[in-house]
């Protein structure tokens, strides 16, 4: 369907155009010799055209760069800015907190922490909350707590999941059907197949087979996979996961960091799920670093009753700046005033327009691609029907095609998340923004296959 030599030529043309259009970003990259990889964090080198755009301002759904170019941003910090960039209520609350009350690292609680805990409990249905600085740490600490409370050593995740840089989660089902470490895992501390088990998403038989070993403390999962395209649950799958985890004495952790796009209480509330633990991060701070995990009352009581567990000092669950007033002020404003029920309704409507338009364009060119939506989040994959598992979705990755589309869009003022073909709507994303995307996307396909 796709002429590979045409694709290569178009990608080379778009990369050259990108270099011409972004001389200041290129120069800034060139000057950053004292940054490892020339970027503040090595993953920022995940870019379609050789170096990243260096941004100047970011408000709402708009980013401008150091070359004076403006973008409609559908990446939104890969969900970190799902509340829009620099949402006014968050900027105001954080600025006021700093100027009027000072102190960000006192090792003492502030009153708004309890309010944020109560709001998360209301939204996600689990009542006992604790804070971290990243979603990765929320997952790490949840895993420790569940190992402690069950006395079981292992964690089970879905193949091609992503839960942050959590050692136990970097495991996949290999081509032979057996578990193996995820390719490229940097300095793995041990063979992950000793600490973890893995099943394909939507595969209840595989899950049951792994849980039957009786050594799995927790299943850590996204209610829908979002980091290998969006893989949605088939009817009965999530109920089956809950039933199997209960039957095998395994706790269930819903990582809502991305699936929060499904609605104000994430997929947990939208789909009536009953996890034992909810973990989250990114968007709830409106861009300010925060993570959180929520426990059922039963689980919290079981942990508090264990005098052998050091939850207060150096027991392995902690972070000096976790629960700091900056994170919590930001989360209070984000949840209270920005990511409201009304905002979600608008975001989902805009995302639905995005998905429908992409579907139409793709069908117009008779491309065998699929479009999946999870509330405010949309993603297309280069295969149809939409993949049922992480493994299937991974098998249809096409880096060159993805780079072409990303570079083409960026050169014409549209940003997608660099890691996949994901588009997210924030409260300020408009139908006009979506229409602009569709115009450019259709032009990219016309040049490729028209
Ligand atoms: N969980 C999920 C589902 C994620 O997608 C991510 C990051 N993409 C994380 C956890 C980790 O978040 P962070 O990098 O903020 O720790």
TrEMBL record:
GO function term, MF aspect, one: pyridoxal phosphate binding
InterPro entries for the chain: Aminotrans_3 (IPR005814), PyrdxlP-dep_Trfase (IPR015424), PyrdxlP-dep_Trfase_major (IPR015421), PyrdxlP-dep_Trfase_small (IPR015422)
Keyword Translocase assigned: no
Keyword rRNA processing included in the entry's annotation: no
Range of residues in the leader sequence: none
Cofactor(s) required, per the database record: pyridoxal 5'-phosphate
Family: Belongs to the class-III pyridoxal-phosphate-dependent aminotransferase family.
Protein's UniProt name: Aminotransferase
């Amino acid at each position: 369907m796709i002429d590979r030599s045409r694709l290569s030529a178009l990608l080379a043309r778009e990369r050259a155009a990108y270099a011409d259009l972004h001389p200041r970003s290129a120069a800034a990259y060139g000057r950053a010799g004292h940054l490892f990889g020339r970027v503040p964090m090595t993953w920022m080198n995940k870019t379609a055209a050789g170096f990243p755009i260096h941004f100047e301002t970011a408000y709402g759904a708009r980013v401008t760069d150091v070359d004076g170019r403006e973008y409609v941003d559908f990446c939104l910090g890969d969900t970190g800015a799902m509340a829009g960039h620099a949402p006014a209520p968050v900027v105001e609350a954080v600025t006021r907190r700093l100027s009027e009350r000072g102190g960000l690292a006192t090792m003492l609680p502030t009153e708004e922490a309890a309010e944020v805990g109560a709001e998360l409990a209301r939204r996600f249905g689990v009542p006992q909350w604790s804070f971290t600085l990243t979603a990765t740490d929320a997952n790490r600490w949840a895993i420790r707590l569940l190992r402690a409370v069950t006395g079981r050593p292992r964690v089970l995740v879905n193949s091609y999941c992503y839960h942050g840089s959590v050692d136990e989660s970097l495991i996949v089902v290999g081509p032979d059907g057996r578990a193996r470490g995820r390719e490229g895992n940097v300095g793995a501390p041990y063979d992950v197949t000793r600490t973890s088990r893995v099943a394909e998403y939507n595969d209840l038989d595989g899950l049951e087979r792994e849980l039957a070993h009786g050594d799995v403390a927790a299943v850590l999962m996204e209610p829908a996979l979002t980091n290998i395209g969006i893989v949605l649950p088939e009817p009965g799958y999530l109920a089956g996961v809950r039933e199997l985890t209960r039957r095998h004495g395994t706790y269930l952790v819903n990582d809502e960091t991305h699936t929060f796009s499904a609605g104000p209480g994430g997929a947990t509330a939208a789909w009536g799920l009953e996890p034992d633990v909810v973990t989250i991060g990114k968007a709830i701070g409106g861009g300010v670093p925060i993570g959180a995990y929520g426990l059922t009352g039963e689980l919290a009581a079981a942990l508090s009753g264990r005098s052998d567990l050091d939850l207060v000092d150096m027991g392995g669950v902690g972070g000096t700046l976790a629960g700091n007033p900056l994170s919590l002020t930001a989360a209070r404003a984000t949840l209270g005033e920005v990511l409201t029920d009304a905002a979600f309704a608008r975001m989902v409507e805009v995302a639905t327009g995005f998905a429908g338009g992409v579907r139409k364009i793709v069908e117009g060119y008779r491309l065998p691609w699929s479009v999946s939506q999870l509330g405010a989040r949309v993603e297309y994959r280069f295969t149809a029907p939409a993949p049922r598992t992480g493994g299937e979705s991974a098998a249809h990755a096409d880096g060159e095609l993805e780079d072409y589309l990303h570079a083409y869009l960026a050169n014409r003022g549209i940003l997608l998340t660099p890691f996949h073909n994901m588009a997210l709507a924030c409260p300020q994303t408009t139908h006009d923004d979506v229409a602009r995307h569709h115009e450019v996307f259709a032009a990219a396909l016309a040049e490729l296959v028209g």
